[in-house]
Amino acid sequence: MKLVKAHLRSFTLPAVAVAVAGALLIAGGSAQGQASTGNSGGAINLGDHGLSSFEAVPVTSDRGANQLEFSFRGGFATDYMYRGTTLSDHKPAVGAAIEATFSQLYAGAAVTSVKLPTQPAAEIAISGGVRRTIGNIDFDLGVSYFLYPGEISTSPGTDYWQAAIRADKRIAESLRVAGGFAYSPNVSNTGAWSWYAAGGVGFDVPSRLLLRYYDTNLSKENCFVLTGDPNARPGGAVNLVTNPEGLTSRWCSATFVAKASFALN
Predict the structure, then answer these.
(1) What is the sign of the dihedral through the CA atoms of 103, 196, 80 and 5?
(2) CA angle at residue 9 from 6 to 11, to 5 degrees?
(3) Which of 39, 82, 113, 222 has a 20 to 30 A CA-CA distance from 28?
(4) Coil, strand or helix: which one is 243?
């Protein structure tokens, strides 16, 4: 079972923390400790895009320094929740991802089905970055670009990029903790800067089918502003600037999600 608590904010914030963390990751080899030997229970999900993303994949000790490797993953979920907000209208979604790794560097792409007001054909996430172990903590610093092809809107669309860092540490044989921070200068191409911080605790269980709980502190009114839910209802608090009709959305409600996935390495 995994429990994740996450918060979403739109805020003007420099990416200093990401830059500092990047300097640590790219620093000399003297800071690198023994690599992780595996992650039997899977990664702690901190709100990454995609049902089958390679979030928090460890750098294993048997990976060659100059060896190119490929991995593939696929998944199904009863709901595609992204940081407490549904991207599939609380309906089932499927996804697949491929990743190439070379030493501590990685690059990959993921495709996930979505159901959004602009009716894109899918969500495509392209990412790259570096993973390494410092001491006994696994770090992952990466940049991702999210595309939504086939949108019907005449606006520029919702494509955008973000930078993110996360750290994972195993504190017992079956117990792990993780924390992450993500920053985008133009989230969902809205013109708003955003940051996202999350923490999680994971306990390994011998199963590939897990039930997760997602929630957010966004109000129903701000949920509509964020998502543009076409099924939004009136009756909420009026904001003359962002929500003059006081529309509310259920797309950011608390949700339990069942997920099944597989991986080929």
Answers:
(1) positive
(2) 145
(3) 39
(4) strand
Closest CA to 196 of 73, 82, 99: 82
What is the tens place of the pLDDT at every residue in 99-129?
A: 999 999 999 999 999 999 899 999 999 999 9
What's the structural domain count of the chain? 1
Classify residue 246: in a domain, yes or no. no
Q: What pTM, to 2 d.p., does this model score?
A: 0.66
> How many residues are listed for the chain in this entry?
265
Residue 236 lies in a domain: no
Query: What is the residue-wise DSSP string for 3-60?
Result: EEEEEEEE----SHHHHHHHHHHHS-GGGB-PPB---TT-PPP-S-SSTT--TT---B
Domain annotation covers residue 139:
yes
What is d(CA 88, CA 114) in angstroms, rounded to the nearest whole number? 5
